[in-house]
């Protein structure tokens, strides 16, 4: 039996969750903390902004590709050993970044670090699912959602403060002791689920890497060459061909990577689409708003980072409450209410996008963050509960993979919309491009109402699965 049988959780189980939570938080925090360092890095390493962006884009891509292997890794290796390996990758990558003499070494460090995050991030949710009692699953998944949703928003604030007062290298030195603490807490992780020795599907992993990389490269061309450019079209063709090959191989393969048969469950697929739209919007907005504050309002990098802090902190700290609402009220009411608040905030941003002060951004982002956190982790909890314990590892791997990849694409698309603005000054271009971006993500979050409607309608027939 892999699930905690009683309504309580053991001390060792709680320490295991804390260890994984610490490492997941640090990994996701440093995903976005480097965004504010781009101007400094271009000058220091004498590379273009398009090249420097790979510090974040490459990181997210690598995290995505490692996470997709998590179902295999979990079934093949001891959880404590998996965790320790993830921490060691994170520490080695962190040291490479902190000491990097050149941009290529910095990028290598980020990719090594991303392997560690990709290992630990899905492990956090697997540890929660195996150790948290069913009656408190919403609460603990809310805590897990807190890590995933709060850390990317805190990243620019953390990076902005460190760069303003210290140096970009100190971002890596500051998190190093936290990683070491996580390593020692990791000794509390016990193996609960039985292990097996499946064969790994390298071919499907390579095809998936081509899908993700080509799509990311394609979107990265849009900000420079516009939406109708040959490179973007070629990237899409490569992506479609690789995706077709991936699906074809998946139907015949007996080797393990991730089970795409789970997409035949419409509740899972609809919930996943809604979840990716939320993450796409969240990361995109976390990219847009600090840039708007600096370019339009002429705020410092410190202020630009801090304007997201109140909303991120308060909404994040309330995540366990949103999990309790799920436990007490079920999935439908909290999720649809959260999506409504989220949508309202985006409408306000779109309406006021031509004239937003830092204080206005702070207030509207507070509403945005509250709505986002209510619907975000609860959407994932609902989907994982519907698919049942037998498919949880695959569902978790897919959710986490597309959560990271959605963030990567969200940044690229947001950047493209900002570049699509019109005007005589940088501020005017930013205002116009921002309005385009807000309108686009508003449409996505409105579509989520449709996804949720059908997910809950179809899920009502599957509710007995919750008794597992």
Automatic annotation (TrEMBL):
It is a multi-pass membrane protein. It comes from Levilactobacillus bambusae. Residues 16-460 form the Major facilitator superfamily (MFS) profile domain. Its main location: membrane. GO terms for molecular function: transmembrane transporter activity. Signal peptide: none annotated. The keyword Transmembrane applies. The chain crosses the membrane at residues 12-30, 50-70, 82-105, 111-129, 141-165, 171-190, 202-220, 232-249, 270-289, 301-323, 335-356, 362-384, 405-430, 436-456. This is MFS transporter. It comes from the Bacteria. GO terms for cellular component: plasma membrane. Keywords: Cell membrane, Membrane, Transmembrane, Transmembrane helix, Transport. NCBIfam families: efflux_EmrB. InterPro entries: EmrB-like, MFS, MFS_dom, MFS_trans_sf.
């Amino acid at each position: 039996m892999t699930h905690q049988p009683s309504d309580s959780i053991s001390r060792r189980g709680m320490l295991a969750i804390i260890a994984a939570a610490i490492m997941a938080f640090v990994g996701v925090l440093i995903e976005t903390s480097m965004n504010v360092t781009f101007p400094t890095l271009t000058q220091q390493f004498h590379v273009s902004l398009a090249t420097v962006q790979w510090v974040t884009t490459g990181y997210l891509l690598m995290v995505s590709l490692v996470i997709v292997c998590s179902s295999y890794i979990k079934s093949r290796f001891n959880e404590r050993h998996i965790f320790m390996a993830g921490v060691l990758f994170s520490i080695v990558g962190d040291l490479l970044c902190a000491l990097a003499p050149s941009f290529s070494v910095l990028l290598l460090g980020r990719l090594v670090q991303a392997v560690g995050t990709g290992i630990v991030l899905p492990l956090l949710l697997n540890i929660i699912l195996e150790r948290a009692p069913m009656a408190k699953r919403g609460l603990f998944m809310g805590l897990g959602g807190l890590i995933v949703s709060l850390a990317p928003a805190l990243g620019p604030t953390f990076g902005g403060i460190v760069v303003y007062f210290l140096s970009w290298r100190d971002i890596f030195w500051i998190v190093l002791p936290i990683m070491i603490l996580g390593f020692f807490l990791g000794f509390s992780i016990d193996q609960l689920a039985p292990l097996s020795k499946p064969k790994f599907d390298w071919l499907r992993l390579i095809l998936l890497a081509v899908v993700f990389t080509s799509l990311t490269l394609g979107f990265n061309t849009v900000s420079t060459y516009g939406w109708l450019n040959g490179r973007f079209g070629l990237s899409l063709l490569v992506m479609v061909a690789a995706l077709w090959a991936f699906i074809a191989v998946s139907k015949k393969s007996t080797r393990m990577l991730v089970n795409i048969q789970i997409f035949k469950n419409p509740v899972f697929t609809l919930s996943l689409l809604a979840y990716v739209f939320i993450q796409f919007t969240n990361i995109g907005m976390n990219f847009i708003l600090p840039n708007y504050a600096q370019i339009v309002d002429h705020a410092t990098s410190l202020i630009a980072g801090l304007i997201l802090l109140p909303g991120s902190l308060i909404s994040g700290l309330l995540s366990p409450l949103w999990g309790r609402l799920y436990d007490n009220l079920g999935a439908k009411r909290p999720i649809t209410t959260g999506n409504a608040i989220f949508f309202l905030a985006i409408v306000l941003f779109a309406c006021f996008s031509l004239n937003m002060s830092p204080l206005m951004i702070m207030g509207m982002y507070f509403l945005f963050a509250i709505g986002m956190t209510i619907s975000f982790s609860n959407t994932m909890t609902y989907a994982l509960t519907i698919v049942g314990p037998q498919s949880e590892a695959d569902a978790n791997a897919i959710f986490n993979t597309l959560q990271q990849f959605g963030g990567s694409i969200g940044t690229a698309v947001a950047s493209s919309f900002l570049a699509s603005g019109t005007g005589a000054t940088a501020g005017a271009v930013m205002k116009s491009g921002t309005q385009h971006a807000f309108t686009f993500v508003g449409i996505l979050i409105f579509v989520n109402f449709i996804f949720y409607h059908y997910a809950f309608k179809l899920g009502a027939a599957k509710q007995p699965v919750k008794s597992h």
